[in-house]
UniProtKB/TrEMBL annotation:
It comes from the Bacteria. The chain crosses the membrane at residues 55-79, 154-174, 212-233. Keywords: Membrane, Transmembrane, Transmembrane helix. Residues 64-331 form the Fatty acid desaturase domain. It holds the Pfam family FA_desaturase. This is Linoleoyl-CoA desaturase. GO terms for molecular function: oxidoreductase activity, acting on paired donors, with oxidation of a pair of donors resulting in the reduction of molecular oxygen to two molecules of water. GO terms for cellular component: membrane. The keyword Membrane applies.
């Protein structure tokens, strides 16, 4: 059950939005060479990890080399997806005019295409965060995570489906924008599905050939250990990204919103919805880097185009502003937040009548 929220007058809500706008403006004014050095350093570390991991896998006749190589390759894939790819595609570094860090063209080491991610995530999810029927990330079309979702017998298998989805997370993300449910329901033609499937299939094929054909073949007699190392590295990345993303969106106190919430939505109202639809994770600097700073999911939803490494400093002021306006600020250790995610998965797999979605609004009567 989502926590109660304090009602705000239109004037108070406007003042709340103005404070966050001012915080954004102060932060944007600081963006410059320090941010460029940071992202280039992360890119360099990611490349070192990947090269070292693949070299060690080529020497995987020695078990310690296989373990270390697999771990380094997994870490490289996490950095590529979380701190580099995800943040770059939000346009956080477009101001650098670096063609390798262009948010509109960046392509990452994952089965899903950058173009589809920019549509489903950057536009749909960030614009309509947790708005039922508009945000496709609510359960990803597979899971019932809120009581307002209608229960179906399929959800009895939800605990198992959730595990499979976590292991194959990059593939689930890859097909998300295809909206297979519409196709099977006859609301999408074969021609449309074929056109949408082609770029996805090309990206999937490229990933499969790279990780499971080219690099294993280059290893010669160590084909199988390298194949296994690449497979496990992808699993490591999938499990980590799944856990971080689910902890940022499906803890106990996040809110689900009706479509009416976006009608004539003001800037302050939009900020309010982003905060109530997100959760943070506590941790140290290395932890934040490995999450792509999505451990600061609240700040990311407020300011998705600000370089994510700045969220830690921003978070202190965001939390203080929320406290003054009586707006809940959801944060906790990963173990606590993920236990709440698991509870949602288990609890809402069981039969229940769909709860009525309240008309959530911050406005005082």
């Amino acid at each position: 059950m989502a926590c109660a929220t304090k009602s705000l007058s239109p004037a108070t809500l406007e003042a709340f939005g103005a404070e966050l706008d001012a915080l954004r403006a102060r932060t944007v004014a600081k963006i410059g060479s320090e941010d460029a050095r940071y992202i280039r350093r992360v890119v360099k570390v990611q490349r070192y990890f990947e090269v070292a991991g693949r070299v060690l896998l080529f020497a995987s006749i020695f078990p310690p080399a296989w373990l270390l190589g697999t771990l380094l390759l997994g870490l490289a894939k996490i950095l590529d997806n979380m701190e580099i790819g995800h943040n770059v595609m939000h346009g956080q570094y477009d101001w650098m005019r670096d063609p390798h860090l262009n948010g509109k063209t960046y392509e990452w080491d994952i089965a899903g295409t950058g173009d589809n991610w920019r549509k489903t995530h950057n536009f749909k999810h960030h614009t309509y965060t947790n708005v039922r029927g508009m945000d496709d990330d609510i359960g990803y079309g597979l899971l019932r995570l809120f009581p307002e979702q209608r229960w179906r017998p399929f959800y009895l298998a939800q605990p198992l489906v959730a595990i499979i989805f976590a292991l194959a997370f990059e593939w689930g993300v890859a097909i998300q924008d295809l909206e297979l449910g519409k196709y099977f329901a006859g609301r999408k033609s074969k021609a449309q599905m074929r056109a949408e499937w082609q770029p996805v299939a090309r990206k999937m094929r490229r990933q499969i050939v790279k990780d499971y054909v080219i690099f294993p073949l280059l290893a010669g007699p160590f084909f199988l250990p390298v194949l296994a190392g690449n497979f496990v590295a992808n699993i490591i990345r999938n499990l980590w990204t799944y856990t971080v993303i689910f902890c940022g969106h499906f803890t106990a106190d996040v809110h689900l919103f009706p479509k009416s919430v976006v009608d004539n939505e003001s800037r302050g109202h939009w900020y309010w919805r982003q905060i109530l639809g997100s959760s943070n994770l506590r941790g140290g600097k290395l932890f934040h880097v490995m999450t792509g700073n999505l451990s600061h999911q609240i700040e990311h939803h407020l300011f998705p185009d600000i370089p994510a490494w700045r969220y830690e400093a921003i978070a202190r002021e965001v939390r203080e502003i929320c406290g003054r306006y009586g707006i809940p600020y959801n944060t906790g250790r990963m173990s606590v937040q993920f236990s709440q995610v698991v509870w949602r998965i288990l609890r809402h797999s069981l039969p229940s009548r769909p709860a009525r979605l309240p008309s959530v609004t911050p406005l005082a009567a």
